[in-house]
């Protein structure tokens, strides 16, 4: 990216100044699915689940994206390994596909991005929020930078905010950016039954955030009209996820997978040391045709179905974290329609146990 372009992006808030410091539900499933003409970008452009009301401020961002087509070329380079996986997960959860555009605003799809308030990863999750939604943050591993873990957490959070905000995606995105309390206060100060997001007294940063999202969706959906060439990202998996347990030497994994150190670290920036920790687990991202099977990592544990009895102060998210899964998976397995639990309720969970 040219230096002048980067400066403009920073001034628009499209990049963080401190930046650069298979399927999710079935990690081992590598089967290709139906192709969409134009690939992943076309799939995103075809989704219109989030409805916008006209806002003049978004026009400034539309104009900027149209005048700087190279921006989306750079984004495509950053996102090419991950975008299909995220789109596929959104499809499986029946969430708006256009939510895959949020990491462009959050981090320019750079997993190593860190904000001035220490939010990290492509979804820019803070430590407390990440932990609340089941993402591990340890001295030796930061799950916010792991695409698998952070995307599950971010989508759980977005769905939670959507349900908490009267099924209004613009409110939910505002809450994702500014916090639910900010949205609640803005709504309580407005006399309308469900006021437009633009009529609320919100921080300028939050309104800019939603305006950028609207502008991105507008421009990507009309790329041909504005002579913007979006690099093709095929609608098929290019990355697989393998779950490993126990202590392992990452150099042996890299050798077995036949990938370069640079590529391995690009796909797995959450790993902070060259050896995984005994008793812990990791989701390792690899190119679709690579494998780390028999690379020397431990297979000392297996997963077993057990019944867990809900205790006082338990939440769906705390239970998901305890059993190293996601709230969405727990709800699906136990056929739950919402997040509410009752004391003594039995939930079917997968528990890691010694061989």
Give structural notes.
The strands form two sheets. Strands 1-2 form a two-stranded antiparallel ribbon. The protein has a two-stranded antiparallel sheet with strand order 3-4. The N and C termini lie far apart (51 Å). The protein contains 15 helices and four strands. It has helices spanning 3-12, 39-45, 56-67, 70-79, 83-93, 102-107, 127-132, 147-164, 169-178, 180-188, 204-221, 250-257, 261-267, 316-322, 327-333; strands at residues 239-245, 281-287, 301-309, 346-354. The protein folds into three domains: 3-221, Lysozyme; 239-287, Membrane-bound Lytic Murein Transglycosylase D, Chain A; 301-354, Membrane-bound Lytic Murein Transglycosylase D, Chain A (Roll). By secondary structure, the protein is mainly α. The radius of gyration is 21 Å and the shape is globular. Residues 1-33 and 295-302 have low confidence and may be disordered. InterPro entries: LysM (IPR018392), LysM_dom_sf (IPR036779), Lysozyme-like_dom_sf (IPR023346), Transglyc_AS (IPR000189), Transglycosylase_SLT_dom_1 (IPR008258). Keywords: Signal. Residues 306-349 form the LysM domain. Residues 1-22 form the signal peptide. This is LysM peptidoglycan-binding domain-containing protein.
């Amino acid at each position: 990216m040219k230096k002048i372009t980067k400066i403009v992006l920073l001034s628009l808030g499209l990049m963080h100044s401190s930046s650069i410091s298979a399927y999710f539900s079935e990690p081992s499933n590598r089967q290709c699915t139906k192709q969409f003409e134009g690939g992943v970008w076309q799939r995103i452009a075809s989704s219109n689940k989030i409805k916008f009301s006209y806002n003049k401020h978004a026009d400034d961002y539309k104009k900027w994206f149209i005048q700087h087509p190279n921006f989306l070329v750079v984004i495509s380079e950053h996102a090419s390994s991950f975008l299909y996986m995220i789109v596929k997960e959104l499809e499986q959860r029946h969430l708006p596909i256009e939510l895959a555009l949020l990491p462009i605003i959050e981090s320019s799809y750079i997993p190593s991005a860190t904000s001035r308030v220490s939010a990290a990863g492509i979804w820019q999750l803070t430590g407390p929020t990440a932990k609340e939604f089941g993402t591990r943050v340890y001295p030796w591993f930061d799950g916010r930078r792991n695409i698998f873990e952070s995307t599950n957490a971010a989508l759980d959070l977005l769905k939670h905010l959507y349900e908490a905000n009267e099924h209004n995606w613009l409110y939910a995105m505002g809450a994702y950016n500014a916090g639910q309390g900010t949205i609640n206060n803005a709504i309580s100060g407005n006399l309308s039954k469900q006021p437009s997001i633009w009529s609320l007294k919100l921080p300028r940063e939050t309104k800019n955030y939603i305006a950028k999202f609207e502008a991105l969706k507008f421009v990507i959906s009309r790329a041909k009209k504005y002579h913007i060439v979006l690099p093709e990202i095929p609608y098929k998996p290019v990355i697989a996820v393998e779950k490993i347990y126990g202590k392992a030497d990452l150099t042996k994994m890299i050798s077995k997978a036949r990938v370069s150190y640079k590529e391995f670290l690009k796909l797995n920036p959450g790993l902070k040391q060259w050896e995984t920790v005994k008793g812990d687990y990791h989701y390792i991202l690899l190119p679709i045709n690579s494998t780390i099977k028999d690379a020397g990592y431990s297979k000392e544990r297996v997963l077993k179905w057990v019944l867990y009895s809900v205790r006082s102060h338990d939440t769906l998210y705390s239970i998901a974290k305890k059993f190293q899964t996601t709230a969405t998976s727990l709800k699906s397995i136990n056929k739950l329609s919402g997040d509410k639990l009752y004391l003594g309720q039995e939930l079917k969970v997968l528990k890691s146990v010694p061989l």
